[in-house]
Amino acid sequence: xxxxxxxxxxxxxxxxxxxxxxxxxxxxxxxxxxxxxxxxxxxxxxxxxxxxxxxxxxxxxxxxxxxxxxxxxxxxxxxxxxxxxxxxxxxxxxxxxxxxxxxxxxxxxxxxxxxxxxxxxxxxxxxxxxxxxxxxxxxxxxxxxxxxxxxxxxxxxxxxxxxxxxxxxxxxxxxxxxxxxxxxxxxxxxxxxxxxxxxxxxxxxxxxxxxxxx
Length: 214
What we know:
Elements: H1 2-17, H2 22-31, H3 36-44, E1 46-47, E2 55-56, H4 64-95, H5 109-112, H6 114-140, H7 148-177, H8 183-213
Antiparallel strand pairs: 1-2
């Protein structure tokens, strides 16, 4: 794949150097069987400026510091949503206790939610701060949108969220088919689905925005 991309980039560079316009280059490459998204990526590597030779655009680069920040971002995201889920589960357990009685349902609630609250109190500010730092870096250098660390970790977060959402749906259908669906279980399934679905929707939108900007 890397070799073919290099070959495509060389062709685009030579065609631009000979004065061919971008639409013609794209048309020829499409006719030759190249995927359009790879053609546009190759063309996007050269700035559309008036100069005797093709001018390359700056390309995204990978640094240990950037990888650390994205790892920290997604780790704190995981801790925050895990804490939120645990907190909501505890509330649901108290509102709909298994025995049906509500007299002692709230006993020990403060102790039960201490860990999820601690996770959220620590993770949410760190997540917001790191997100702000990364957004500021993207505004200063838009080429960072193509960062390998950003792409890989975003897709990893999408993978985890998708697996959780699928597992949640499987559990819901399984319980429904067994006739054991309760309000308590349904609410917990909705909490998991809403959290996983929110993460999926946001990061899919972010990836589409990055592709459009690229």
